[in-house]
Write a structure and sequence with these properties.
The protein is of the alpha+beta class. The protein folds into three domains: 2-96; 131-280, Beta-Lactamase; 291-443, 2-Layer Sandwich (Alpha-Beta Plaits), CATH 3.30.70. It has helices at residues 2-29, 46-126, 131-146, 173-177, 188-196, 202-207, 249-280, 291-308, 322-329, 331-348, 372-387, 419-435, and strands at residues 36-38, 41-43, 151-156, 163-169, 200-201, 224-230, 233-240, 312-319, 354-359, 362-368, 391-393, 396-398, 402-409, 441-443. Strands 4-3-7-6-5 form a five-stranded antiparallel sheet, with helices on both faces. Strands 9-10-8-13-14 form a five-stranded mixed sheet, with helices on both faces. It has a two-stranded antiparallel sheet with strand order 1-2. Helix 1 (2-29) runs antiparallel to helix 2 (46-126), helix 2 runs parallel beside helix 7 and helix 9 packs across helix 10 (331-348).
């Protein structure tokens, strides 16, 4: 705009100066004459022409000055309007930037808080080295972060099908345990999330025509299900029944995904720790508990039985003629017989029973709640099953028998008993079974 105004004024000044120079030249170079009549023609003198030129020049100057003034005023108004619009736009931009800074500041604060929460959560989860406490910690954190008053967590059993309740908030735990949930559509959103290893929400299932029917089997009335996956294996499932109002879907998904990711790593660590711990308390050949762990468990179970005034059955077992078996068929056949007996013991054992390799060809069996006669019946069943079992190794078949001594803590007969005393009377009954010809069960005469 400024350049345009400067160019117009330069052009006009140059025209005016040229006209002035021309008129001055005419005025100087011509004589002063009046209007004459020569040969029938009127001739004006130069002075008259100059005067007329002066008037014309002044008129032109005035015209240009007026035009320039009007143009400048018009251009000034346009410039002011342009500046005003720019100022308005700048004010709008300033307000937008101010709002953006405010929103960004809130988001940065929220993000910072989220990062701190996640960092604390990671430290807390990684410090737990047992699976059940870890899963409970994951559930507690999920409830806190989502403001959930109804949530639960299930782990996947070894059969990859059964869902076992670990802990629940806001639900009846006994009722959940009795539901018999499994990883299929029959168990609703929880089942399909466990079977497919995918995050599901109630709204997503409802909007999926092919899967909407799954909600009919949802006995927990869940809103979200997030599986905890390591590699391709589903380890557990986080279930959320409700959430705090005002939480966005993005935030909910982020929290559950983060919990699942941290949980997967932490669960893998706890499984490794538990595996190492389990190996340290088991016999490497038979995978039964070793002697040291047996002594610890017998002491704990005997203390519990005395405290609860409940009987505790105990069996000492020994393979018959084991040395002759090794000498005849070799030590590998002897190992195979030991593993066969271990398999039979594990199949017979209830969840609360403890079976151990006491040492060499001797085994120990603890069964809480059984009196002397019930324990003797259990021992007789073990003896019979092992006697009828055939052990085959590289085409060679062999069989073996066992002898057993049975004892039991009976609260009606004695208020308490020491661990070593219970082992001693059972071992004495075992020795008697050996003396009477082996392949038999003998009950202890004293407790």
């Amino acid at each position: 705009m400024k350049d345009m105004l400067e160019e117009n004024w330069t052009y006009r000044i140059m025209v005016i100066m040229c006209l002035c120079i021309l008129l001055v030249y005419i005025y100087i170079s011509n004589e002063e004459t009046l209007l004459n009549y020569i040969n029938g023609t009127f001739i004006f003198d130069a002075k008259l022409i100059w005067q007329i030129g002066i008037f014309a020049l002044l008129g032109l100057v005035l015209f240009y000055l007026l035009e320039s003034t009007l143009d400048y005023k018009s251009q000034s108004d346009v410039l002011k309007e342009y500046v005003r619009k720019i100022q308005t736009e700048l004010d709008t931009e300033r307000e937008a930037i101010k709002d953006l800074k405010s929103v960004s500041g809130d988001k940065i604060v929220k993000l910072g808080s989220f990062i701190v929460t996640i960092s604390d959560m990671a430290k807390e989860l990684n410090s737990v080295l047992e699976t059940t406490p870890l899963l409970k910690a994951i559930l507690t954190k999920t409830s806190e972060l989502l403001g959930s008053k109804r949530c639960a967590i299930f782990n996947i059993a070894k059969d990859k099908k059964t869902l076992n309740l670990v802990d629940a908030i806001g639900y009846d735990k006994d009722e959940l345990s009795r539901l018999g949930l499994s990883s299929d559509e029959g168990s609703g959103m929880l089942g399909i999330s466990a079977s497919e290893g995918k995050f599901y929400s109630r709204s997503a299932l409802y909007n999926d025509y092919n899967k909407r029917h799954v909600l009919e089997n949802d006995k927990l009335q869940l809103e979200f299900c997030q599986p905890i996956i390591y590699g391709e294996e589903v380890l557990a499932v986080i279930c959320v029944g409700d959430i705090k109002t005002g939480l966005s879907d993005e935030y909910i998904i982020r929290i559950l995904s983060t919990m699942a990711n941290f949980g997967a790593v932490a669960l893998t660590n706890t499984r490794l720790v538990e595996k190492i711990k389990d190996q340290s308390i088991r016999d490497s050949l038979t995978q039964l508990y070793n002697h040291q762990h047996f002594q610890q468990r017998l002491n704990e179970m005997l203390f519990k039985a005395v405290k609860n005034n409940k009987p505790l059955g105990f069996i000492m077992i020994d393979l018959d003629h084991f040395k002759n078996l090794n000498d005849t068929y070799g030590h590998q056949m002897g190992d195979a017989c030991l593993k066969k007996l271990a398999d039979i013991l594990k199949m017979k054992a209830k969840k609360e029973d403890v079976v151990a390799r006491y040492g060499g060809e001797e085994f120990a069996y603890i069964s809480p709640g059984l009196n002397l006669q019930q324990t003797a019946k259990l021992a007789e069943g073990l003896r019979n099953d092992f006697k009828n079992a055939v052990v085959e190794l590289e085409g060679v078949k062999a069989s073996c028998t066992l002898s057993a001594g049975v004892a039991a803590y009976l609260p009606k007969k004695t208020k308490s008993i020491k661990k070593n005393a219970l082992i001693r009377v059972a071992d004495k009954a075992l020795y008697e079974a050996k003396e009477k010809g082996r392949d038999r069960v003998v009950l202890a005469k004293e407790v």
